[in-house]
Amino acid sequence: MVKIEQIVKLREKTSAGVMECRKALEEAKGDEKKAEELLKKWGVEKAEKKTGRSTKAGIIDSYIHGEGKVGVILELLCETDFVARTEDFKKLSHELCLQVASMKPKDVKILLSQEYIRDPSVKIGDLVKQTIGKLGENITLSRFTRFSLTDSGK
User: Do domains 4-50 and 57-148 have the same CATH topology?
Assistant: First the structure.
């Protein structure tokens, strides 16, 4: 039997729906770690079903690091303005900016294949898929540019 406290704890940790948390905990026989992994897996599976859907809304985000020595600007797209305004979408955008600033990827494909700086067990592409699963819309990283005073040759 799954306890309500476990559902609440898992929901707070993952932001997944109550019924999804309950189902994951039931399948994992109360093991919270396994339930969290199940939710991630299900999120990625949901994301794969959404690829190919049109992404015409989104945000342009920026990040400046190192007392103005490094800057990133990127375009992250989703299906609707509603999702573009959510905290989860904005958080993903910010994390992508941090990743670009610190890891200096040359293009979107390379960025998506990199290990996430906060958790090397997760690839950036999987981080995007997890957010797709959570928000229920396709998300695409359209483009980004990284600026650095030390790389400018001046």
Answer: no
- Show me where the domains of the chain are located: 4-50, 57-148
pTM over 0.70: yes
For tokens 């540019």, the residue is: 145
pLDDT digits (tens, 9 = 90+) for 2-18: 778 888 887 777 767 77
Please give the CATH number for the structural domain made up of 4-50. Answer: 1.10.8.10
Please tell me the distance from the alpha carbon of residue 36 to that of residue 152, in angstroms, as a whole number.
43
| CATH code for the part of the protein at 57-148 | 3.30.479.20
Q: What is 48-113 written as a DSSP string?
A: HHHTTS---EEEEEEEEETTTTEEEEEEEEES-HHHHTSHHHHHHHHHHHHHHHHH--SSHHHHHH
**Cβ(128)–Cβ(134) below 8 Å:** no
Instruction: Dig out the tokens for 127 from the structure.
Output: 């981080």
